[in-house]
Amino acid sequence: LTPTPVILSSTTLGCNEFNVSTCESCAPGSQYDNNTLLCTCCSHPGLCIFPGACLPCKKGFYQSLSGQQECLPCSRGFYTNFTGSPLCHPCPAGSFNNNTGGESCTSCSPGFFASKQSSTSCSPCALGNFCNSSSCTQCQLCPAGAEALQTAAKACTPCRPGMHKAPRQTLCQICNSGFYQILWGQESCDICPENHYCPSPDVNPILCPNDAFCPKGSTAPGYCMETFFRKAGDSCELAPVTIALLVIGGGVALLFIVLLILRRRRETDGELTVARAPLLHKERPQGRYYGLPCDTEPVYAGW
């Protein structure tokens, strides 16, 4: 643009752009007034900076005051998409702007979100959450039976066989011991039925062998101890050979106890017989023996 020449004094008339000896351009932030032939300040915000003219601020810039010499760039997270703007607008939730002087905001990509206005970046969805569209303001938890194993997920994947996920859980969980699940994308596991066992949570229940028993929730068949027990319905009972061994063993133990009692009694009777026997008088030569007359009766001292 060509600077607009204006008269500097009200006494000087008839100036034009070629009469440079008496005319000058209006200062930045002002413009020529044809009525008064004087420079006047730009009266509207968003107009400034060109010598001799009031020009609108370009996109991405603003000016909230009148008569200013320059426009200001929009801060990060803000934008303005038209000229002559007196202010900048915050980027709406679900979008961002990481540069100053922004003319627009960028929508968050799928798998990312911005929950607040004036965001300078988008955040990735956390584990177990997803966003399958652009401009997400928040991520959603994967539904029951599905999970997201990585951050910034655009979609969820179903739980594998042998696993499950309840509605409020984040990731799929392995079925508990004694439970199974052979389908994809399930929110619960099934207990292993009676007369079956489930060694792995991702296979069908296996029929219990005839010589074993399997209550509900079994992970392996239960067997009775070979030789000594045998299966009887849902439990084990003593085998005939075990009963015979118990009878024989009990008889031997009883006989041993009887013999032990008899032996003890015989030893006790022998001790009583010895205690009741009279002391025998022993002839000793006349005279004195250890300071006592030899004819003195012996005294039992308990030895």
Automatic annotation (TrEMBL):
<keyword id="KW-0472">Membrane</keyword>
<feature type="transmembrane region" description="Helical">
    <location>
        <begin position="238"/>
        <end position="262"/>
    </location>
</feature>
<dbReference type="Pfam" id="PF07699">
    <property type="entry name" value="Ephrin_rec_like"/>
</dbReference>
<keyword id="KW-1133">Transmembrane helix</keyword>
<dbReference type="InterPro" id="IPR009030">
    <property type="entry name" value="Growth_fac_rcpt_cys_sf"/>
</dbReference>
<protein>
    <recommendedName>
        <fullName>Tyrosine-protein kinase ephrin type A/B receptor-like domain-containing protein</fullName>
    </recommendedName>
</protein>
<feature type="domain" description="Tyrosine-protein kinase ephrin type A/B receptor-like">
    <location>
        <begin position="53"/>
        <end position="85"/>
    </location>
</feature>
<dbReference type="InterPro" id="IPR011641">
    <property type="entry name" value="Tyr-kin_ephrin_A/B_rcpt-like"/>
</dbReference>
<keyword id="KW-0812">Transmembrane</keyword>
